[in-house]
Amino acid sequence: MADWPDSVLRRFRAVPLNPRENDLYGPWNKLLSYLFPPSSDFTVAPQSYLLSTSHGTADFVVEYEILYNNVPVLIVEIKPPGNLRLPSAREDADTLIRRRIRDLSEGCLLPTLHAVSAFGTQLAFYSRAQGQQIAPGGIAPDPVRLTDTAPLHWWSCDVLEEEGRQRFRSLTTEIVQACENLE
User: From which domain of life does this come (predicted)?
Assistant: First the structure.
């Protein structure tokens, strides 16, 4: 399978060594717009909203919703890559993506709503088929033992490496084809 276009790769290469979350929005927007072109019936729609954290602080969340005729068919949430090593950051990302899937899956035109949680370029894949639970299944915290509720291995694919590129491209191709079959 072909590599990403040079224009996409250049945007990812321009990301600083210790990026902030917003340093990643441009490269991800470029990649998503390549996969879901503006000339199609898809729209790459950045969304932002205020999230109250369990620590009593507020945080802004920015995600991309890929819309087909104004209905979400894919969710992509981006976090800074340095936070991937932190179990609490993975737990927060996992909780957030599960909430968004739950909120948006009922309105999805497709049999399955897909979502991707990205720490930089490291991807975790989620999905919810209509009437089913979210995959991968959630891991409940244990009140006594430390429990990794969002294991590091869930983010094992890098979108800039062959396996991750193939998996992400396969997912987006599946979504495009499923949307075309709706017509």
Answer: Eukaryota
